[in-house]
């Protein structure tokens, strides 16, 4: 997938394209349906399947006090879009000047001009342009004038519940990562560098990998069944992860520590991604390190059983 981080990076010969516009945070099941349709139209009409997304989130500029904490980092989002079959992504640097563009200026400069759109897909509640003056009817009219047709996408529901990034954020912060996984179509994950801890685990409990998470959104503190992946080698391990403050040792800073349940690599990975599969228990303070270690081993045994059940379901 070709990725452009500014209009200047898009080559003059780009397109023609079929474009969908949005933040696509979480790249959830609703987004999956949109991407599937974008790729389908691209193949049918010989158009480049393209996503126009934004960094930072527009709310960070327009209403910073209401800006959401994002589920995914930009690299995570782009990897997921590529997996969906998207051929190109323009990660537009959202700015106060860009926010002042009228709906027509946005269409003429970006959609018709830079991306040479011939078809545009957006949600039925799509708003754009200065002070969100444009809506789906505005976009349809402008499309007729500038050479593209519009395909509105209705909201996607599962079990009568609308799938949205906002709903997924609420699930994650409440520890309901299993349901978030079902809505996303893949596990909610944290990624970042492995950093040195205080050495407490290797000396008193169990050795862990300490993650400096780059994601804005963190799950509710507690213990989780997880899967840990080395971002460089691609190796994966079943794991159990604690998100919390290490109250047994009077910790003050929030940490993300993962204990590998499979044989660890000879050299610890430098960057990892931790996929959160299920909530196990709340974090609690124990009498001493020995009591904590005993609980960790009980948790590890329970998570091992969880992973075996999941593995059997996959095979079946």
Oligomer: single chain
* Dominant shape: elongated
- CATH level-3 fold name of the largest domain: Rossmann fold
CATH architecture of the largest domain: 3-Layer(aba) Sandwich
Strand content: 25-35%
Question: Roughly how many Å is the radius of gyration?
Answer: 22 Å
Q: What do we call the CATH homologous superfamily of the largest domain? A: HUPs
Helix content: 25-40%
Briefly note the structural class of the backbone.
alpha/beta
User: Which runs of at least 5 residues are low in confidence (pLDDT < 50)?
Assistant: 199-204
Mean pLDDT: 92
Spatial arrangement of strands, main beta sheet: 1-4-3-2-5-6
Describe how the helices and strands are arranged:
Elements: E1 2-4, E2 17-21, H1 29-45, E3 48-54, H2 58-62, H3 74-83, E4 88-92, H4 96-99, H5 103-114, E5 117-123, H6 136-146, E6 149-153, E7 157-158, E8 161-162, H7 165-173, H8 177-184, E9 188-195, H9 200-204, E10 209-213, E11 222-230, E12 236-244, E13 255-260, E14 271-281, H10 289-315
Parallel strand pairs: 1-4, 2-3, 2-5, 3-4, 5-6
Antiparallel strand pairs: 7-8, 9-10, 9-14, 10-13, 11-12, 11-14, 12-13
Helix pairs in contact: 5-6, 7-8
Detailed description of the structure:
By secondary structure, the protein is an alpha/beta fold. It has 2 domains: 2-155, 3-Layer(aba) Sandwich (Rossmann fold); 172-315, Riboflavin kinase-like (Elongation Factor Tu (Ef-tu), domain 3). Helices cover 34% and strands 27% of the residues. It is built from 10 helices and 14 strands. The chain starts with a strand and ends with a helix.
